[in-house]
Design brief:
The complex is a heterodimer of chains A (about 350) and B (about 80). Chain A is mainly alpha-helical. Chain A is built from 19 helices and no strands. Chain A has helices spanning about 10-25, 30-35, 40-50, 55-60, 65-85, 90-100, 100-115, 120-125, 135-145, 150-155, 160-175, 180-195, 205-230, 245-255, 260-270, 275-280, 290-310, 315-340, 345-350. Classes of the chains: A mainly alpha (about 350), B mainly alpha (about 80). Chains A and B meet through helix 1 of A and helix 1 of B.
């Protein structure tokens, strides 16, 4: 597809209109409540009437039940994200492309972890979403490689290669890829910050989104680390570029008293993250870490929606749509797997981001 | 003396006609540019909406041509000035 090169608002208006339309087609909250009381075949039938029809029709001869849903959702997500990349013109494409690199990290780590645990190729393929730089053919090639060295060699020349190559031997020795994962995400966010600050038109709005993403991720990590009470130096786990300095991050984790921690965190949060302040006020209600994480995602999506309304023709409507689409897939997966495991309705509802 | 007055009247009339033509040109030209600017955003949004859903083509076509009224106003003003 030829790249549209134009100054002015034309590319923004065009692509933002398309994203707004697609966002309006996402599954509404009421439908999730209806689906909570349905069986897997009924859920499949309902979503077959939406934009997932093609994938379900194609995959129904090979899979059924929750597996059919899982595969169809992954295919649809990858197809949708690649399509958004294709239709996004001009500088917006470079923003979207760098943002979608997150999926490369997830896919490569999925393959490395799956291989290390001796999982079957088909099982690993289920979790892959080829929405980034690494396409399905390349990921299939990686899946076919047997030895860790050959996987590393196949990744040469890709953006994730330098970080993986630096920590690969240590990770294989420790049989844990968590250090590589941390480094990959840090590198990813540094790259995003560099793209946003590279002087491209609309970079300022992109930066707003990245800082919000980094802040939410760091806050989530603070909650997790506090819950685990590991009392170790966690500064290396912080993602730089957000509102926290490494020492502040560590101090927040080290605070023993929960009330003191909430007060200290409130002081650090900017006024625009008002819903987060409300969440922190409710923290005394004894929420579980999963509930807090879901609440943080809701807050992030709410903030993104707000930014979309403030700047209707910017990168925000595109990224908001991509994030909302991602969580639609997460919700449907949670529904399918929850139903398969015969979990109670209230428990499944707790996993939904709605 | 009479000849001189005639020439002056003719020059004034010609100048008046020229100014009218110039004013008409400005009226049509500037409203044409304004229409173009207004249609830029509407047109690109219309193409985006039609790409997602072909059924809205008729509606977005109507919305796209609404700024045409600006250039029609300019044309009417120009015609009123000229005739």
């Amino acid at each position: 597809m030829p790249e549209v090169r134009s100054g002015g608002p034309v590319p923004y208006v065009y692509v933002c209109t398309r994203m707004r339309y697609r966002k309006s087609k996402l599954i509404p909250k009421e439908d999730y409540y209806r689906m909570l009381n349905m069986s897997i075949p009924e859920i499949t039938r309902i979503i077959e009437e939406t934009q997932y029809k093609k994938e379900i029709d194609e995959l129904s001869p090979f899979f059924h039940g929750a597996d059919l849903l899982e595969h169809a959702l992954s295919w649809n997500l990858a197809k949708e994200f690649q399509n958004v990349q294709q239709i996004t013109p001009g500088v917006l494409k470079s923003f979207v492309r760098s943002y979608l690199r997150k999926w490369d990290i997830q896919n490569v780590l999925g393959i490395l972890r799956g291989k290390a645990q001796g999982m079957k190729q088909g099982k690993i393929r289920e979790v892959l979403v080829p929405a980034g730089e690494l396409d399905r053919i390349f990921l299939d090639r990686l899946l076919k490689e047997d030895s860790p060295e050959r996987i590393l060699e196949a990744l040469r020349g890709k953006s994730v290669y330098p970080v993986i190559a630096a920590g690969y031997a240590a990770a294989l020795e420790k049989e844990s890829f968590s250090d590589i994962e941390n480094e990959l995400y840090k590198d990813y966010y540094l790259d995003l910050l560099a793209v946003a600050g590279g002087g491209l038109k609309g970079g300022k709005q992109f930066l707003e989104f990245i800082v919000l993403d980094i802040d939410i991720m760091n806050i989530r990590n603070i909650f997790r680390l506090r819950r685990e009470r590991l009392h170790q130096d966690a500064r290396a786990l912080m993602i730089p570029g957000g509102s926290f300095a490494p020492d502040e991050f560590q101090d927040l984790i080290d605070l023993e008293d929960d009330r003191e921690f909430i007060d200290a965190l409130k002081k650090k949060i900017k006024v625009r993250l008002k819903p987060l302040l409300l969440l922190l006020d409710e923290m005394g209600a004894g929420k579980s870490i999963r509930e807090i994480e879901i609440d943080l995602i809701r807050i992030q999506l709410g903030q993104m929606e707000l930014l979309t309304k403030l700047k209707p023709f910017s990168i925000h409507p595109i990224l908001t749509y991509l994030e909302k689409k991602k969580y639609e897939i997460f919700n449907l997966r949670a529904l399918a797997r929850g139903k398969e495991a015969e979990l109670p309705t209230d428990r499944i509802r707790g996993y939904l981001v709605i | 003396m009479l000849l001189q007055t005639d020439v002056a009247v003719q020059v004034a009339e010609a100048s008046q006609g020229g100014m009218k033509a110039l004013a008409a040109a400005i009226a049509v030209g500037s409203t044409g540019i304004a229409t173009g600017i207004a249609e830029t955003a509407i047109g690109s949004a219309a193409v985006g909406a039609t790409a997602e859903n072909k059924d809205v083509f008729g509606l977005v076509l109507l919305l796209t041509v609404i700024p045409e009224t600006i250039v029609i106003f300019g044309l009417v003003v120009a015609l009123l000035m000229l005739f």
